[in-house]
Amino acid sequence: MPAFLIVHSKLTDSDAFEHYVKAAGTSLERYQGTYLLGGSLSEVLEGSHDKDRTVIFQFPSIEDAKSWYKSE
Question: Quick check: helix, strand or coil at residue 21?
Fold first, then answer.
C-alpha cells in the first residue's frame, strides 16, 4: 500500500534549499519515492502556523518512507 510523507517547512536559506533539492531527488530514487507536489502555501483554512512550504512525497510502503526519512 502506498505511503505519503507530507512536509511543512519554512524557507530561510534559498541557496541551501537548492542544494537540498538536488540531493533529495537522487535519494528519492534509491527508496522508490516520488515527488508529487510542492510549493508555497496559499491559504491556511483552520488554525495557524509559521510554515510557508508544503511538499508531498509518495513511497511504495510506510517502511520505504521511513527509511528515506531516516537516511542521510
Answer: helix
